[in-house]
Amino acid sequence: MTRFEANGRAVEVAVEPRMTLADCLRDVLRLTGTHIGCEHGVCGACTVLVDGEAVRACLMLAVQAEGRRVTTVEGLSHDDTLTPLQQAFRKHHALQCGFCTPGMITTAHALLSEEPDCDADRVREVLSGNICRCTGYIPIIEAVLEARSAYRGDGRAGDDGERR
Amino acid sequence: MKLPAFDYACPATLAEAVTLLAANGDAKAIAGGQSLVPMLAFRVAAPTLLVDLARLPGLDRIAIGADGVRLGALVRWRDILADARLARAHPLLVAAVRHVAHYQIRNRGTVGGSLAHADPAAELPGIAVACDGEIAVTGTAGARVIAAKDFFLGALTTALAPDEIITELRLPAWPAARRFGFEEFALRRGDFALAAAAVFHDRAADGRATNAHVGVIGVGERPTRLPSVEAVFDGARIDDGVIARAAAAASAAVDPPDDIHASAAYRRALVGTMVERALVAAQQRDQP
After folding, report:
1. Rounded CA separation B151/B166 (Å)
2. Chain A partners of B105 at a C-beta cutoff of 8 Å?
3. Among A67-71, B173-177, B190-194, whose mean pLDDT is lowest?
4. Residues of A numbered 51-110 whose beta carbons fall under 8 angstroms of chain B's beta carbons: which are they?
5. Global pTM value
6. Chain B residues in contact with chain A using a Cβ-Cβ cutoff of 8 Å
7. Directed axis angle between helix A120-127 and helix A138-151, to 10°?
8. Residue span of the structural domain in which A24 resides
């Protein structure tokens, strides 16, 4: 059995070692907000937070999540309200088909939690690991830049649990 | 693709991990998995057992001393970039690691994993070779230290025995006045290098360059120093003419592959440009 925390909830899963964390989240825990694109660590769609750090869930085995704190895009918002980052995505039309969006949101959330004063170049560099095939990157970068203000202060907007 | 089936162990000690590797001929060690998991997905690797090194104690340390920098095998790219001491203790290492992979990969990828994977275009193996680094490993026969130049045998091929685990990369001490440059060309920042050059040298009292080192990646089967390029500026006063000759020597010294990303001729030209830019950067970097 593998035990970890998923979006603040203690979970226990019986999975084969070969199952990736991405497949475990989607198929076992039914957290289908995490999308799977390339399955070999190139596209960034499956980005989740592990102990507060952005990682590619297709490059991590579910068994390696033992004892860790995993946060998916579902874990960033509460109730029916959008987080300031999600609101900024909507305002700037930072998504079209939406496939890449969970990975963009989780990656940007990790970045802004650690570096709420990052500049546009830094946002571009970090998001270069996330591929979008329809909207393009300019509105996404605008949305992330606008959301920075929400992360200043306590720097913890939307995440549950504590960061290492 | 989904990964092939394998067993999994997460031992608590190095001795236990080595024993597991020795007892299972086609077992592989896994740390961050940022190279190995894609290899599994593509069926380039299909081990029957993965031995996870995550719980092994003491391998996540960065030690800085008079003898240089020691990076534990489980040190991640993120840890290197977060360690403010390294800006002084090994600025070339930091400059190179800034080019390693994308944000999410840097949170999982490790020193030991990069060395063991031995991608010909990877930055850390290039730095290990360029800086005359040493790689400490432990196997059933005990611990040994392998010079980086003898460690990388070819693309994805190292001197590591099947039962050996990398424990540490050792880089010799870095004098404060040393001049250096690291230049890489990739299609996107974070992608593998089409070519990159690490250059450093010290300066004699009369202003001549001494201790010339040039290492390149992406242009051969393994990271390598280029002695013919080092000879161009070792003992010389570096000026535009010397830099141009060094760049030409670099293009002449390599025999790069043709692949979908770039032709051999393009890579040959590129490595000359990288050496040129790195030497210019080294000149411009005013040290206290």
Report:
1. 11
2. 41, 56, 59, 129
3. B190-194
4. 53-56, 58-61, 63-64, 66, 107, 110
5. 0.94
6. 1-8, 10, 30, 33-34, 37-38, 40-42, 50, 52, 54, 78, 101-105, 107-108, 188-190
7. 120
8. 2-75
Amino acid at B228: S
Give the end of a domain, one of A75, A104, A137: A75
DSSP B5: P
Number of independent structural domains in chain A: 2
Residue B141 belongs to domain with CATH number: 3.30.465.10
Q: Do B37 and A58 touch (CB under 8 A)?
A: yes
Flag if B4 and A56 touch (Cβ within 8 Å): no
Distance CA A48, CA A21 (A): 9
User: CB pairs below 8 Å between A and B: how many?
Assistant: 86
Q: Which of B199, B176, B212, B214 is nearest to B85 (CA)?
A: B176
The answer to whether residues B128 and B166 belong to one domain is yes
DSSP structural state of residue B34: T
Q: Are A141 and B202 in contact (CB under 8 A)?
A: no
Contact at CB, B105 and A64, closer than 8 angstroms:
no
pLDDT in tens, B232-268: 999 999 999 999 999 999 999 999 989 898 999 999 9
Q: Is B57 contained in some domain?
A: no
Does the distance separating the beta carbons of A129 and B108 come in below 8 Å? no
Same domain for A89 and A70 = no
Same domain, A9 and A38: yes
Q: What percent of chain B is predicted at pLDDT more than 90?
A: 94
**What's the rounded Cα separation, in Å, for the pair B208 and A151?**
51
The answer to whether B102 contacts A44, with C-beta atoms less than 8 Å apart, is: yes
One domain for residues B184 and B161: no
Domain that holds residue B270: 179-283
Residues B187, B267 within the same domain? yes
pLDDT band at B153 (very low <50, low <70, confident <90, very high): very high
Across the interface, of B30, B42, B108, the residue whose CB is closest to A40 is B42
